[in-house]
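Reviewer comment 2.1 asked that we show a complete input and output for one of the modelled complexes. We chose the magnesium ion case, as it is the one discussed in the main text.
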Amino acid sequence: MNTEAPVLRVGDLHAYYGKSHVLRGVTLEVRRREVVGLVGRNGSGRSTALKAIMGLVRPSSGRVVLDGRELAGRRPYEIARAGIAYVPEEREIFANLTVDENLRMGMQPCPEGVPAWTAAQMFDYFPRLKERRGTLAGRLSGGEQQMLTICRSLLGNPRVLLIDEPTEGLAPQIVAAVSECIADVHRQGVSVVLVEQKLTIALRVSTRMCVMGHGRVVREGTPQEIAGNEELLAQWLAV
Ligand SMILES: Nc1ncnc2c1ncn2[C@@H]1O[C@H](COP(=O)(O)OP(=O)(O)OP(=O)(O)O)[C@@H](O)[C@H]1O
Ligand SMILES: [Mg+2]
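Response of the prediction step:
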């Protein structure tokens, strides 16, 4: 059991798309060295939860507290500066810049108590990116762009990394590299919230899991507890 104080507390977060009430009171906590797997059926609100934490979708009410500091209602850039990084499902790269230039765009001064990442470490995670460091990012494969987006986010030295379906559409070998990277990142002291559609990967990489249904967290537990609960799997996770 991880007994460290939560780095990120999300409390009773609500959000709408127009009149549609999509987040209906999301509550979750993330401690240091945790990977919280946010799982659930399609449309359960996982991506919106990440966007609302990041300020990309404006929460109508609720709390997003990072290291004791209230961030709900702040602008995405302020939230990024406070120490939350977001890797969206759509890989965000600067297509006309090289891999190296993309990485440099992500670099930020390192606050205290957070691991300071270097480009060399990124290349250790993903040797393929090193081989392609002079290539324009727009020419990379989808998998390489995903690796680049993760690396660029890490170089901002975040306390918390929010990552939305990083393995979507990737070849098995790249899925393995990305999962290993996430598993290692949390050991280095970054907290991760991972939205992952593939339950086997979520179970393997997460240290704790939160199951979303109808716009809120309906259950939480260790990967073993979730995997062993047939009724929960059938009710909230089966397609
Ligand atoms: N930009 C948007 N405008 C209006 N409705 C949206 C928008 N984005 C998502 N929704 C709706 O909000 C609900 C939650 O969507 P969200 O993307 O958060 O789900 P999810 O759990 O990430 O699922 P998936 O990734 O499989 O779509 C869904 O009913 C979806 O149709
Ligand atoms: Mg989604």
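The mean pLDDT is 94. We note this here for comparison with the apo prediction described in Section 3.2.
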